[in-house]
Amino acid sequence: MSNELSFSNEIANVMYATHGNPIKDCLQCGTCSGTCPAVEFMDHTPRAIIGLINAGYRDEVLASNTFWSCASCYHCTVRCPAGIDIADMMYALKRYSMWKGQHQEGLIGPVFAQSFVKMIVDSGRSFEPLLAPTYIFKHGPRGLVQEAQTATGLMLKGRLPLLPKKIKGLKKFQNMVRRIIPIGEPS
Amino acid sequence: MSEKIGVYVCHCGTNIAGTVDVKGVAEWAAEHLKHRGVVIGRDYKFMCSSLGQELVENDIKELGLTRVIVAACSPHLHEKTFRTACERAGLNPYLCEMVSIREQVSWVHTDKVAATEKSKAAISGGVERVIHNEPLEPIQVPIHADTLVVGGGIAGIQAALEIADAGYHVCLVEREPSIGGHMAQFDKTFPTLDCAACILTPKMVEVGAHPNITLLTWSEVEKVDGFVGNFKATIRKKASYVNTDSCTGCGICWEKCPKKVVDDVFEAGMGIRKAIYRPFAQAVPKYPVMDVENCTYFKNSKCKACQLFCPTEPNSINFEQKDEILEVQAGNIILATGYDLFDATRIPQYGYGKLPNVFTSLEFERMCNAAGPTEGKIVLRDMKTAPKSVVVVHCVGSRDENYNKYCSSICCMQSLKFAHLVMERTGAEVYNCYIDIRTPSKDYEEFYKRVLEEGGHFIRGKVAEITDAARIPEEEGKLIVQVEDTLIGKQRRIPVDMVILSAGLEPRHDAKEVGKLFGIACGASGWYTERHPKLDPVATMTDGVYIAGCVQGPKDIPASVVQGAAAAARVLGKIQQGVISLEPIRASINKDQCSGCRICNGLCPFNAIAYIEDDNVSDINPALCQGCGTCVAACPAGAISGTGFSNEQIIAQIDGLLLRNLEPAGV
Question: Which element (helix H / strand E) includes B6?
């Protein structure tokens, strides 16, 4: 056996080890894809993604939009006859994809994820007005107007701050985060 | 040290020699265990070969060995071989011990040096143990020539007929009013499509009329005492309220009975029977039984229509009848109690029980059956509309960690049969949704091909859900089966009229309790455990108790018949022997030490321990005891000791393992 990790093992390592069975247990029955409410937006069905992972098709998997389209409803996880936590595998693929900096162009997911994480790391809080531009233009002018209306309403009610706030002890928080995800050395 | 011990170390080809320095181990034993009585240490390529055995025999004769240690594979495999070899050479076989250096050393280690050292320690332990071994004689017990067969399905019927035809008496006990089991409910049997009743009923009639078979239907075994060769079963023959001496089975009683009951057992809930009933026309025996829970007379003390109209003289209906308790002697027991169908309501996304046109496999079988509730017409739940499209769902409750992990083995062929019958009788479009099609028996793959050629559609994907929530006009009023067609990688929604769930097989709901009754154990999936999965599939760990058919695991009719016949052959072999030798590895109670606390009584998995009121002590039946050691460990007074596993032996073996027996200079 070679000492180099297979792609399947790499993804397994990124998944939370305590949940579910290894993805190698997949018997390709398609229960996940048959169940998935978002499957029509995916270029590969969830089952096909597991098949591609286990067969070592790294680039094809990372170029896929499947895991970025996952709605995290966990229906697949509940029904999987092999006991695989498929929804969690989708998260693992997102993390892996961001870690390797390799993903399909033109997707909202990676950009959103990046700006979200950056914002949290910088301020310790989510600030909607800065986050919104990553997805707001995707839905055309009508969507834009709708979002703007909602935002105005929230602002008038005091539910949406005008300026971003930072948490106390930001440095300590950043050091904590640094232990989990690679966000670079402290500046 | 007066013992003369021979140590033989097997290479097992490279199985052991590849990891353990066998020659070194043999030489070490001869040199360093000399002071413990080892007079010879040899290694040999295959100890189990005739030449290897002769090596031991010759040494016993020439060197006068009094104890033998064979360091090789697990005693499960070759203990008997070497003990027999010792016996041939005139040494009591129980003075030979095996040390497993294959399963416990070479197969589980890669470090050669460490494995060699571990082998030495294991052999040293074996030597210390064998010094304390005592010569034992097998226990001889006579075998009663009668056999008890429990369960009157096809496996039990086959077993009973084989034994009865050989001239020995059989008592066949069946819980339901008739023998026949699940097979009697089916319509056609795969792959040849013979009518199930046509091939089964002649056998049922034969059982009913056989002079060597006592048939006890509507009966259950309540208690089993005794041991191989001498079982005593207590059987409750439930009151049927019908006098079988005068009853002719004419059928007037159930014709006149005013109480209609949904038949959940034989008709799988699809049909109606009366409170007094015979489950089906070809039932054996032909006599009806009374369902007390539903009988109007037993509820309201009036009616008695059956008795009123019974034409026999004397009247065959007897409302005063009581349960009978019978005692049956038997030398051997065959358990063929079958399976339960997986309860499809456990999978909510398949909608069984909520969506009317979702059927289980057994419901569909009854529907196909010409004697069934629809007289063989395949119709929707409204009992009149023929379906135009049908989905057969495979693996319902099988191959699924949420329900049963195992493959139920019959569902693929059963589903193919359903597809064929639907196409043949209704011309409907049929879709089979499967994970894998498994057709591993004679003519099965040919049947699959036949269904393909007949135009059956096959979708490779496990059905995710069945719903009546339409998204598009074409789906209105239909059942929508949502599934990924994995071969094209697309989620499909197939609108159909009818869905058949090919439900898997499960161990009987009371398999555990019944197993305890007969002193046999269930495996992880709940099926009874055979003595060896390949080489001894119908025997159990309890001598004299055999299993046949689906009790041992899911199987189809041909395989059940094979096991029924196999179990019968094993029983006949035992009967022919007349007496049986039992391993003398048994536990015994020191009556002076026993406090009569009875902790051991309930723990014994073989019901071998009984409490003797008069003496206020427990006693072990040596023929029933399997020497498992549970009671030995549990006894708070240390009053129980196991032959061959005495404290002395075990402590000596541990000392040996720790090499405490070596002389300081020899370490």
Answer: strand B5-10
**What are the structure tokens assigned to B229, written together?**
């060769």
The sign of the CA dihedral B40, B44, B50, B51 is negative
What burial class does residue B329 get, using C-beta atoms within 10 Å of its C-beta: 0-12 exposed, 13-18 middle, 19+ buried? Answer: middle
How much is the pTM?
0.84
Name the helix (H) or strand (E) containing B432: strand B429-434
Q: Return the DSSP state at B338.
A: -
pLDDT at res. A184:
66
pLDDT tens-digit map of B552-602: 999 999 999 999 999 999 999 999 999 988 888 889 999 999 999 999 998
Contact A29 B482 (CB under 8 A): no
What is the spatial distance between Cα B157 and Cα B477, in angstroms, rounded to a whole number? Answer: 46
Q: Encoding tokens for residue B483?
A: 């599934």
Chain B positions touching chain A (beta carbons under 8 Å): 349, 395, 399-402, 435-436, 460-465, 482-486, 489-491
Which two tokens mark B179?
Answer: 């023998």
Low-confidence ranges of chain B (pLDDT < 70): 1, 664-667
List the domains of chain B with CATH numbers: 5-136+650-666 (3.40.50), 140-237+325-338+508-582 (3.50.50.60), 239-322 (no CATH), 342-504 (3.50.50.60), 587-643 (3.30.70.20)
Among the partner-chain residues B399, B401, B462, the one whose CB lies closest to the CB of A30 is B462
Report the chain B residue with the minimal C-alpha distance to residue A48: B489
CB atoms A81 and B349 under 8 Å: no
**Contact yes or no for B183/B369 (Cβ under 8 A):** no
List, for residues A72-111, the tens digit of each pLDDT value: 999 999 999 999 999 999 999 998 998 898 999 888 888 8
Residue A146 has pLDDT above 70, yes or no: yes
Q: Which two tokens stand for residue B643?
A: 């032959």
Q: What is B480-546 written as a DSSP string?
A: EEEEEETTTTEEEEEEESEEEEEE-EEE-TTHHHHHHHHT--B-TTSSBPPSBTTTBSSB-SSTTEE
Q: Is the pLDDT of residue A187 over 60?
A: no
Task: Identify the three-state secondary structure at position B288.
Answer: coil
Q: Where are the beta strands (DSSP E) in B185-331?
A: 188-189, 194-195, 213-216, 219-227, 230-237, 260-263, 271-274, 276-277, 289-290, 324-330
Domains of chain A: 7-100 (1.10.1060.10), 108-180 (no CATH)
Across the interface, whether the CB atoms of A35 and B460 are under 8 A apart is answered no
Question: In whole numbers, what is the pLDDT of chain B averaged over residues?
Answer: 94
In a mutagenesis test of the A interface, which of B349, B484, B492 is the best target, namely the one with the most A β-carbons within 10 Å?
A: B484
